[in-house]
Amino acid sequence: MWDPRAYLRYGDERSRPFHDLLARVGAEHPRAVVDLGCGPGTLTATLAARWPGSRVTGLDSSPEMIERATAEGGPVTYAVADVRDWRPEPDVDVLVGNAV
Predict the structure, then answer these.
(1) What is the pLDDT of residue 73?
(2) pLDDT beneath 70: ranges in the chain
(3) 58 within 8 A of 94, measured Cβ to Cβ
(4) How far apart are CA 59 and CA 98, in angstroms?
(5) Distance in angstroms (rounded) separating the CA atoms of residues 76 and 78
(6) Distance CA 84, CA 8 (A)
(7) 25: in domain
């Protein structure tokens, strides 16, 4: 079980590599963006801000994390999923796996 509050204590340390990674992504208008291992959704929301015309989805194996992410609201769809079983739809142009 993951505790979103404990996870967020290290938000700065977790966000730096995420933003460094995204700085290398050249996609301008992706159709769909998926964040595997999205945690509490804090960083996933930045994907929706960067690509406002895209369908953004955050997936995590922890129901507690998805509950927290969903409570934040916003234009992102969140779901509990195991990345080992997940397969991208044909329109997924950007796939983020920062901490997976």
Answers:
(1) 86
(2) 1-14
(3) no
(4) 12
(5) 6
(6) 24
(7) no
CB 33 within 8 A of CB 51: yes
Q: Are 42 and 10 in contact (CB under 8 A)?
A: no
Query: Could you tell me if residue 99 is inside a domain?
Result: yes
- For residues 91 and 31, the answer to whether their CB atoms sit within 8 Å is yes
Domain count, the chain: 1
Q: How many Cα atoms occupy the beta-carbon half-sphere of 42 within 13 Å?
A: 16
Measure CA 20 to chain center.
15
Q: Outline where DSSP puts E strands in 6-98.
A: 32-36, 55-60, 76-80, 92-96
Q: Do 30 and 48 contact (CB within 8 A), yes or no?
A: no
Three-class secondary structure of residue 61 per DSSP: coil
Q: What is the pLDDT of residue 12?
A: 64
